[in-house]
Request: fold
Amino acid sequence: MRRARMTLAATVATAALSLLGTGVAMAGTGPTPSTGTPVPAAGTAGTEEGNPSSAVAQAVGVCSDAYQIGTTSYIYRGTDKIASVKQFYSPSCKENYGYVWVWNSFLSQNINFDLTVGVWSYDRNSLVGKRTVLDTHGQEFWGNPANTVTECTSGYGLVNITNEPGYEVRTEKRCA
Reply:
């Protein structure tokens, strides 16, 4: 009886996996959501994934239909991963946004820092939608809206700590 249940469980699991396929997609690397308006995270709290409806995003003017484009990059301080950096796009506003989420493991060290976030434009060779926050201990940072949707861009994040070199990264280059 036990062997029959194990065989049945294995058969069901194999069937489920074959229906799911073998490919793995990462957030923001696949096609544009079919509706153009992905379901936003619930509420106004910030998230590591990026919630365009968060209080911080809304204060900066992020359009609520923004979704991640491209892959996530990480800011390292030595070997410690201290922040995630992403780029978002809003179809309704036709704007891009940089996004930085500072990790709890870094924040727990009680170090204040300066943070710059925005969208790097390869066409202009400059940072667009730049927003800098000084002497902060915050976690969620959105850049200002960047009118760069027809350009090659990357999300950009920079963490500056007193008496240390700046820690910066760009996400993958994306072209219109």
Q: What stands out?
A: The first strand starts at residue 67 and ends at 77. Residues 150 and 176 are 5 Å apart (CA to CA). Confidence is low (pLDDT under 50) at residues 1-40.
